[in-house]
Amino acid sequence: MGRPKRNFLATANETINPPARLEEGHVIARIKKIEGNSLYDVELPSKEALLVELPPRFRSQIWIKRGSFVIVDTAAFAARNNKLDGQIANVIRDEKQWRKQPYWPKEFPKNPSFADDSREESVVGKMPPSDDPESPASS
Questions:
Q1: How far apart are CA 39 and CA 44, in angstroms?
Q2: What does the CA dihedral 67, 70, 76, 79 come to, rounded to 10 degrees?
């Protein structure tokens, strides 16, 4: 039998609202690569790469894709001598709300969904250029 829905809803509600401040040892990181078996390669604002683990409470409940953001607890595995550098403490789902917080790193700017390149003229809705040598556009 699966987990009760209330466990899923409690986990989902934790990830929506950002805290007033980050706890000691917590840092915002971007997912760079999914290593498998609940291991993720993340990039800190300082461009340092870490290997972190997804705790069991998030597994099979919240999906993390490459390029999304997480809160990493770097002190979780400090005492252990292994290849893991930290543990994911929270998954950032509502990025718009999190970006408004004062602790959001400036090294993670908002990427526009559409590149605004004002130098190039848009060709949407225009006729393709004519190859006819008699046309006035080619002379």
A1: 16
A2: 30
